[in-house]
Amino acid sequence: MNEKKVVMILDAQGGGLGKQLITLIKRELPEVRILAVGTNSAATSTMLKAGADETATGENAAKVASRKADVIIGPIGMVIADAMLGEITPMIACAIAQAEAKRIMIPFSNCDNYIAGVSDFSTGRLIADALKQLKIYLT
User: Fold this and answer.
1) Euclidean distance between CA atoms 73 and 36, whole angstroms
2) Which end of the chain is flanked by fewer CB atoms within 10 Å, N or C?
3) 114 vs 53, 76, 105, CA distance in Å?
4) What are φ and ψ of residue 18, in 5° steps?
5) Mean pLDDT of 41-55
């Protein structure tokens, strides 16, 4: 990879998914710049502690970061308004869905959204696949 890519990780609630992704990306793709956006301060704080290069919180931060990102990674709910217990606003969902960035969506079935065919996959397996797709895209 010739240049550093900006990977935006979006997370809500406690930031646990973001923490796992950031830890793996920093270990396996240390040259990648990570901009982590939490929908709340707890998620943002968790991702900062995990090693994100930059962090921001909230709706407008997600909108701005979506324009800067080369890749956006997060749960599939990031493009569903009112997902993640209402933390994904319509503006966040729209900004991510319309971003020119490559989107890698992790198919969690929660918050009244069921993704057929993925119920038997573990979180670890889904995160590993997301990292694999990121590597393929960046190389």
Assistant:
1) 10
2) C
3) 33, 11, 14
4) -60, -40
5) 95
- Percent pLDDT > 70 in the chain is 95
Tokens of residue 19, six digits: 């923490």
> pTM of the full predicted structure?
0.89
Helix axes 90-98, 59-68, angle to 10 degrees: 0
**Whose structure tokens read 């119920």?**
119
Q: What is the secondary structure of 103-134 as a DSSP string?
A: EEEE---BTTB--TT-TT--HHHHHHHHHHHH
DSSP H stretches of helix in the chain:
16-28, 41-50, 59-68, 90-98, 123-138
- Both tokens of 45, joined, read 């704080």
The one-letter amino acid at 88: I
CA distances from 67 to 7, 27, 35, 119 (A): 11, 26, 12, 32
Quick check: 117 pLDDT over 80? no
